[in-house]
Amino acid sequence: MKKVPHLITLLTIILLSSCIKQKAEKIDNRIKISKSAENDTVYQSESLKVIRITDNIYQHISYLHIENYGNFPCNGMIFTNNSEAIVFDTPIDNSSTAELITFITDKLDAKVKTVIPTHFHIDCIGGLEEVQKQDIPVIANNMTIELIDKSNINKQTIASFDDEIYLEIGKETVTARYFGEGHTADNIVGYVPSENAIFGGCLIKSIGAGKGNLEDANTTEWPNTVNKLKQTYPNAQIVIPGHGEYGTSTLLDYTIDLFGG
User: Fold this and answer.
1) Which residue among the candidates 60, 123, 124, 196 is catalytic per the annotation?
2) Could you confirm whether 202 is annotated as catalytic?
3) Which of 4, 88, 98, 211 has the fewest Cβ atoms within 10 angstroms?
4) The one catalytic residue among 49, 60, 113, 205
5) What is the value of pTM for the model shown?
6) pLDDT tens across 37-75, in order?
């Protein structure tokens, strides 16, 4: 009977050790992502920057010139697997988009299988003419196709979807999904399950960012839409916003709070 307290103590120590180990492993994983982000700039020119976040996830950054402000950085995401790539949002114009495609082809040794704009604003579709010129398939939400008003983009060749589409990139599945209105009526997000990575586009704000351009926004629905996104992908570890630095799911919470959710 006297041995029972010792047994309980021993079991307690084992359980605590296990919890500490699991917590340490989670912290280690976050550190690995943070370090590879902090960063591995794998390409940089005057008009384009590419950051490696993981071995397969990259953030591309191009620059929109705004009068009386200067160059405003705009994000997109690249996912590569088994020599194939998908790009969410083009760089801001055709020349930087051509630059990005060359980088993916030559440096990542991958073929761009498709490009998906997350909404109809220029920071998402600015290089679609170049994408179409290179015969790369474009897929977009039906609302996005309707809202595109650029004459140099052939809307007839853009494949469409309503709520969600699943795409095979290499040996992995990537999802593009519509959750509701926010920054625009048509904004969608990209998700890579194998990486637990979300490309939120302009629906998601970086930490410390303001509300930004609200010209086409639905600020009432915005936090509800991000809440749906958060509930659908509870395991997200990487979240890339449309502008600013990427982070974790805290960006979702920040965006919800920003719009009064």
Assistant:
1) 123
2) yes
3) 4
4) 205
5) 0.86
6) 445 999 999 999 999 999 999 999 999 998 888 899 999
